[in-house]
Amino acid sequence: MHGTETRGRPRNPLATDRIMAAALDEYARHGWSGFSMRGVAQAAGVGKSSLYLRWSSKEQLLVDSVVAGAAHLADQPDSGSLYDDVIAWATDLFEYFLDPAGWTAMRITVDAVAGTAILDDIRQRVTQPLIETSTTIFRRALRRGEIDTEVSALDVAECLFGAVLMHVMNLTPNARRTAKADAYLHVRPFVDIILAGLGARPPGPA
User: What are 166-195's pLDDT values in tens digits?
Assistant: First the structure.
């Protein structure tokens, strides 16, 4: 449900999706200081009134857009194999951070740390579910006995999260354009390193 409820003609869901996509792109480009309802409306090709029919403020528009952009990450991989789950999750994160939704999440985090207090709640709503999903994957592996030592699932999850994020940040513009097609090849090296450090091994011939 969006931030403002109004009666009248039903809203066009395609227009709503277009507005939220424009909001993500605008924030990824300009950050909080340059983010405005007017700018989003222009980028989406709609009148500013169309935004206010759906959202009461730019804060609510940003929240809904970022949460919707990460909604597909709510489905946790659970194949019964730590290696397969981590590869699948790392690939999902990698592709997410290549998109405007992921870049917006990163920029919100930076802006929040820099002192924009209003963004801290948005940051937590985006990053906490991602960290929790990563942590759940490693906790399941501990219960199944796939990890040799009792490690902190949260610490390992943050290592994976940080590795994916840093790798995306280090990509050149040319590499970014083809990265999604080769996502598995991008994430496998650091997944192998992290899991080897835990005593887990990738599947292979006996």
Answer: 999 999 989 988 999 999 999 999 999 999
Whole-prediction pTM: 0.82
Q: Which residues fall within 8 angstroms of residue 157, CB to CB, at 6 or more apart?
A: 131, 134, 135, 137, 138
Domain hosting residue 41, numbered range: 13-68
Is the model's pLDDT at 198 over the cut of 70?
yes
Token pair 């993500």 is found at: 24
Same domain, 119 and 169: yes
Spatial contact of 71 and 20, defined as CB atoms under 8 Å apart: no
* Chain-centre distance for alpha carbon 121: 15
Cα–Cα distance, 76 to 89 (Å, whole number) = 8
Percent of the chain at pLDDT above 90? 44
* pLDDT tens column, 114-133: 877 778 888 888 888 888 88
* Residue 108: HSE in the Cβ half-sphere, 13 Å Cα cutoff: 28
The span from the CA of 8 to the CA of 52, in Å, is: 14
| Residue reference for tokens 């040799």 | 148
Residues 79 and 132 in one domain: yes
C-alpha 167: how far from chain center: 14
Its sign, for the CA torsion 145, 148, 150, 151, is: negative
CATH number at residue 124: 1.10.357.10
Do 32 and 79 lie in one domain? The reply is no
